[in-house]
Write a structure and sequence with these properties.
With 264 residues, this protein is α+β, with helices and mostly antiparallel strands. The chain is built from nine helices and 14 strands.
Length: 264
């Protein structure tokens, strides 16, 4: 990827995030209608309209690229470059008035995440990660991209979006990890990964994750100094077991993997 290409791709990613923000924010804390999809996850007009707007930008600016969005599926399957879009990651938070959701935008080349963006439409925070480069963070609320040092599980803050997702975990090792850390906090969706990239959280262990849930997070977490893999420590990929483990201090990674592998 040339410097010129990267500049174009970043411009398009920010353009999509700006457009999605304009669509999503007016619906926040309104009496928005909610529809349950076939998997019982909620979707709203904000999700669907935001994805349509982002797809329109891609069709205009990068028509040879592929796109795979949570709401409207895959287009241009054979493209070397593919964008993954999750317009509202954390719809449950969104529809209940909690600002713990975000828009996820990722660019993959041959299946490998090159660029990732988290945008929070209400707080106007944005994380931008590019493979091999430091993560950038823009916010009116303060904070600086960079994970914190935490070498021991016993000192670590652990986060997971919901206990329900762990009910379908591939094994029960997460209970060992939970017992090993200092404190467990529930909630956050992609926003929690942004907080890990700011040094506020040390470990996130989740499962039932789709590629559009984690692809954007890879360059953001790694560019902030952390590591993100599957629970067994292997790289994330679309055909994996849908587990995600993110750590702020890379010295925690092997310890977290070992804890997750140990049955309670």
């Amino acid at each position: 990827m040339s410097t010129q290409d990267l500049s174009v791709f970043l411009d398009v990613a920010n353009m999509m995030a700006d457009a999605a923000r304009c669509v999503i924010r007016p619906w926040f804390r309104t009496s928005i209608g909610v529809v349950d999809k076939s998997d019982q996850s909620p979707v709203t007009i904000a999700d669907r309209t935001a994805e349509r707007v982002m797809r329109a930008i891609l069709a205009e600016r990068l028509p040879d690229h592929g796109v795979f969005g949570e709401e409207f599926g895959l287009e241009n399957d054979g493209a070397q470059y593919r964008w993954l879009l999750d317009p509202v990651d954390g719809t449950r938070s969104f529809v209940t008035g909690r600002p713990l959701f975000g828009t996820l935008i990722a660019l993959l080349k041959d299946g490998v995440p090159l660029l990732g963006l988290i945008d929070q439409a209400v707080t106007e925070e944005r994380w931008i990660g590019v493979s091999g480069q430091p993560t950038q963070f823009v916010s009116r609320l303060g904070g600086k991209a960079g994970t914190r040092r935490c070498k021991e599980l016993g000192l670590a803050e652990l986060s997971c979006t919901s206990p329900e997702m762990l009910e379908i975990a591939p094994h029960q090792g997460w209970k060992t990890l939970k017992k090993s850390v200092k404190r467990m906090t529930w909630g956050g969706d992609c926003y929690a990964y942004g907080l890990l990239a700011l040094g506020q959280i040390d470990i996130i262990a989740e499962c039932d994750m789709n590629p559009w849930d984690w692809a954007a997070l890879v360059p953001i977490i790694e560019g902030a100094g952390g590591r993100i893999t599957a629970w067994d420590g292997t790289p994330l990929h679309a055909d994996g077991d849908r587990t995600v483990l993110a750590v702020g201090d890379i010295l925690l990674h092997e310890k977290a993997v070992q804890a997750l592998a140990h049955m309670p």
